[in-house]
């Protein structure tokens, strides 16, 4: 049996209004190890496709932090992502893998599963996201209408600029050279992004060649 959802009613969202952070809000006050220890989420593919007419892939999402497992479709991830963008319009919300309209092959399905796992772990370890009620509901609600529940939580709450108590002082925290820093950071992020995807492509090619080599060696061994 799945765990009983700890969050069920939208009115509970009121107690999750963002609190004033301690220290300088411009500096990250967490170490990498602290961020990694926030949660570890597993995303596993359920072998059988669901649906009577339109078949769809379903995933079992297990959270170490909330000690429960829930079933999620790709469209559930899409709604969750949209609600994060709505509530946190000024933060870098991780991107979702694309949805493939036509029949997806096994390689694409596995690639998307890994991408969804990366996405949800990035969100679960992000300081503000990890403490938000949206994440708690997504990882623990076992009902069938999780998409509506996510939308209900956001309705009438407002985005982060409205709920954060530091919003009225935001301009006071901006350094004089903010534009120069922003331009430099954007260029750095662009370079990191490009390098990351080059590394990912090479790693996938290495893995693909390793699978082919293993298959060839198996055939070679049978023929000896």
From TrEMBL:
Pfam families the UniProt entry points to: PX
Start and end residues of each PX domain: 37-145
Bilayer topology term: Peripheral membrane protein
GO molecular function: phosphatidylinositol binding
One GO term (biological process): early endosome to Golgi transport
Protein's cellular compartments: Membrane
Family annotation (InterPro entries): PX_dom, PX_dom_sf, SNX8/Mvp1, SNX8/Mvp1_PX
Cellular component, GO annotation: cytosol; early endosome membrane
Transmembrane spans: none
Entry protein name: SNX8 protein
Gene (name only): Snx8
